[in-house]
């Protein structure tokens, strides 16, 4: 049986694959008309990794990606499997855990952006359930701008059960909910924590919310009722890092 192949597109995503998992890249297709410095740098990286590169017409890339947002580069690569187990991630930590869990986030752009902010603020892993979740797709990888390769993405069968397991290990589970009475900055985020966010508009599912040790709200002064989940994730992770007073 032939090995499965994933399509990775966009400069950030393909460059990140070459940097972190060059062995997973089987071939790269680049747009024939592009000869700019950015493309030359990518070609140099592919040559250094010994990856075969083909130059092709742009319309072929359009057909492969299904749109024109590929930036003139597509890689055929091995699919990224779900990340390491929670146990493996937690056992390797040298500081209190900082985890991000997503409940019901199905939009690939939101997941990709959440991975990106998780990388930016040093979250140790992103946890998502196997149901009502988008998983890693080419769009997620493109939006994540390389964070798919740096942030462990852990898929769990039952999110509530996994949150209970985290609690048993001494990790404080904090849910973000707009109706919560405690503002985010008043929550102690120095300790080992798992920040849990739901999809925009829907929020946390009832059982997920009931499982949280504490619920917090992001103070808002404007007229909108909710934030995009990736924006909320960035604010929560930034506050955790601010309180800890250290870079990841």
Would you write up a description of this structure?
- It is a single chain.
- With 248 residues, the chain is of the alpha/beta class.
- The protein folds into two domains: 6-77, 60s Ribosomal Protein L30, Chain: A; 86-244, Alpha/beta knot.
- The chain has helices spanning 11-21, 37-49, 58-65, 86-91, 108-120, 138-144, 159-168, 206-211, 229-244, and strands at 6-9, 25-31, 53-56, 73-77, 98-103, 125-129, 153-156, 172-176, 182-183, 193-198, 214-217.
- The strands form two sheets. A seven-stranded parallel beta sheet has the order 7-6-5-10-8-11-9.
- Helix 6 links the parallel strand 6 (125-129) and strand 7 (153-156).
- Helix 1 crosses helix 6 (138-144) and helix 5 (108-120) runs parallel beside helix 6 (138-144).
- The protein is elongated and about 55 Å long.
- The model has no long low-confidence stretch (mean pLDDT 88).
The number of distinct structural domains comes to 2
- Please give the number of β-strands: 11
Under the CATH scheme, which architecture of the largest domain would be assigned? Answer: 3-Layer(aba) Sandwich
Low-pLDDT segments = none
Sequence of secondary-structure elements: EHEHEHEHEHEHEHEEEHEH
Biggest sheet strand order reads 7-6-5-10-8-11-9
Percentage of residues in DSSP E strands = 15-25%
- For the record, the CATH class of the largest domain is Alpha Beta
Which key phrases capture this entry?
248 residues; alpha/beta; 60s Ribosomal Protein L30, Chain: A; Alpha/beta knot; seven-stranded parallel β-sheet; four-stranded mixed β-sheet; 9 helices; elongated
């Amino acid at each position: 049986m032939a090995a499965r192949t994933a399509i990775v597109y966009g400069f950030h995503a393909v460059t990140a694959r070459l940097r972190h998992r060059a062995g997973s890249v089987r071939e790269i297709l680049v747009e024939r008309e592009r000869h700019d410095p950015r493309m030359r740098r990518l070609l140099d990286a592919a040559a250094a990794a010994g990856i075969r590169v083909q130059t092709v017409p742009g319309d072929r890339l359009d057909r492969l990606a299904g749109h024109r947002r590929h930036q003139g580069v597509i890689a055929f690569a091995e699919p990224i499997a779900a990340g390491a187990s929670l146990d493996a991630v937690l056992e390797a930590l040298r500081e209190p855990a900082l985890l991000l869990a997503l409940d019901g986030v199905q939009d690939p752009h939101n997941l990709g952006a959440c991975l990106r902010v998780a990388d930016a603020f040093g979250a140790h892993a992103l946890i998502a359930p196997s149901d009502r979740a988008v998983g890693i797709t080419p769009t997620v990888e493109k939006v994540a701008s390389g964070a798919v390769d740096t942030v462990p993405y852990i898929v769990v069968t039952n999110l509530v059960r996994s949150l209970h397991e985290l609690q048993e290990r001494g990790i404080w589970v904090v849910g973000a909910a707009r109706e919560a009475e405690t503002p985010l900055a008043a929550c102690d985020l120095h300790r080992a924590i798992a920040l849990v966010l739901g999809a925009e508009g829907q929020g946390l599912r009832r059982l997920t919310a009931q499982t949280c040790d504490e619920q917090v709200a992001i103070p808002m002064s404007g007229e909108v009722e909710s934030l995009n989940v990736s924006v909320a994730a960035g604010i929560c992770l930034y506050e955790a890092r601010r309180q800890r007073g250290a870079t990841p």
